[in-house]
């Protein structure tokens, strides 16, 4: 048995045994990404260091979207429950398993904050991201390697945005003037 499948069984094997923990993991998998996005959005209306806050919010949004776009170009595979390898706790998904869009999204946000040296917020986002990613394996919808693939695309997107989307650039100057 591959390490990927062994780890899937170790994590997903707990599913269905502890109803309260199942509820927590389902909530993390369903609401983790939207809650992280909602935590970034208020930066747009920050009163102190407005340009910096808007640049950070826009950077996180661009990394989020860029990572998800990158995922569409990657070779994809079936989900573990379609192969009979996991116990599914949520509704099945129609899209492929690799890489995990959830892992990409939460990693892109956390990595953006960490790259911008917003360590407290970035650390909090990284912790929530880790919980969301574990929940995806726990509920049976992803292999652990799907999560690693999503982390890679999320980090890559955050790095690309960090390199090309600067506070002094023309795109940022136009975006921070909106609203």
Quick one: biggest sheet? none
Residue windows where pLDDT falls under 50 for at least 5 positions: none
Question: What share of residues is helical?
Answer: 55-70%
Mean pLDDT: 91
Secondary-structure element sequence?
HHHHHHH
Q: How large is the count of helical segments? A: 7
Rg on CA atoms, Å: 17 Å
Strand content: under 5%
- What is the subunit organization of this protein? single chain
Overall 3D shape: elongated
User: Which structural class matches the secondary elements?
Assistant: mainly alpha
Let me know the number of strands.
0
Measured between the Cα atoms of the first and last residue, the distance is 54 Å
CATH topology value: Vanadium-containing Chloroperoxidase, domain 2
CATH class: Mainly Alpha
Second CATH tier, the architecture: Orthogonal Bundle
Can you describe this structure?
By secondary structure, the protein is mainly alpha-helical. It has one domain (3-175): Vanadium-containing Chloroperoxidase, domain 2, CATH 1.10.606.20. The chain is 65% helix and 0% strand. The protein is built from seven helices and no strands. It has helices spanning 3-12, 19-40, 50-71, 101-115, 119-138, 144-164, 170-175. Helix 3 (50-71) packs across helix 6 (144-164) and helix 4 packs parallel to helix 6. The longest helix is centred in the N-terminal third of the chain and has 22 residues, at 19-40. The mean pLDDT is 91.
């Amino acid at each position: 048995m591959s390490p990927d499948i062994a780890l899937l069984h170790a994590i997903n094997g707990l599913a269905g045994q502890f109803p309260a923990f199942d509820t927590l993991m389902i909530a993390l998998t369903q609401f983790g990404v939207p809650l992280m996005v909602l935590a970034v959005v208020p930066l747009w209306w920050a009163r102190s260091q407005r340009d910096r806050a808007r640049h950070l919010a826009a950077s996180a949004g661009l990394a989020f979207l860029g990572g998800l776009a990158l995922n569409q170009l990657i070779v994809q595979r079936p989900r573990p429950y379609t192969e009979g390898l996991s116990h599914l706790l949520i509704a099945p998904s129609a899209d492929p398993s690799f890489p995990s869009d959830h892992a990409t999204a939460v990693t892109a946000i956390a990595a953006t904050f960490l790259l911008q040296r917003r360590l407290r917020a970035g650390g909090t986002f990284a912790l929530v991201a880790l919980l969301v990613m574990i929940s995806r394996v726990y509920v049976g919808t992803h292999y652990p390697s799907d999560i690693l693939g999503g982390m890679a695309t999320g980090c890559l997107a955050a790095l690309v945005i960090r390199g090309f989307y600067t506070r002094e650039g023309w795109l940022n100057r136009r975006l921070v003037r909106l609203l």
